[in-house]
Amino acid sequence: MIIDMNKDYSRAIPETWRDISAVFAALGDEHRQRILLTFEPGERLNVGQIAEVSTLARSTVSHHLKVLREAGVLIAEREGKEIYFHVNKPFLQDAFGKVTTYLATDL
């Protein structure tokens, strides 16, 4: 059996895939997945609203929201003293689109 592998990426992830890596790392946690799935399409929620329906403490929800925001999964917008989060749908569509394109090629 001959293995013909691509050695170009053995040391560094390509720039176009760095955002994908952050997304997968952020969504690798079950609590963050649940937080993401809490959002209805187009919905904006603050930490208090998410904590109300979560089994997690408010401070823990805040930590998970920070990770999701830093990965680009969520967008945070300040409104007065409150910060509202919403799903960064265009970013996620682009990131997962890159994965879909990769999978569609002859591997």
Give a description of the structure.
The structure is a single chain. It contains 5 helices and 3 strands, in the order H-H-E-H-H-E-E-H. By secondary structure, the chain is α+β, with helices and mostly antiparallel strands. It has one domain (16-101): Orthogonal Bundle (Arc Repressor Mutant, subunit A). Strands 1-3-2 form a 3-stranded antiparallel β-sheet. Strand 2 (74-79) and strand 3 form a beta hairpin. 17% of the residues are buried.
Quick recap of the structure?
With 107 residues, the protein is of the alpha+beta class. 50% of the residues lie in helices and 13% in strands. It has a single domain, classed as Arc Repressor Mutant, subunit A.
What key attributes describe this structure?
107 residues, alpha+beta, Arc Repressor Mutant, subunit A, three-stranded antiparallel beta sheet, 5 helices, 3 strands
Write the layout of secondary structure elements.
Layout: H1 18-26, H2 30-38, E1 45-46, H3 47-52, H4 58-70, E2 74-79, E3 82-87, H5 89-104
Antiparallel strand pairs: 1-3, 2-3
Please identify, by name, the CATH architecture. Answer: Orthogonal Bundle
Distance between the termini: 16 Å
CATH class: Mainly Alpha
* Percentage of residues in DSSP E strands: 5-15%
Number of helices: 5
SSE-based structural type: alpha+beta
In helices, the fraction of residues equals: 40-55%
Largest sheet: 3 strands, antiparallel
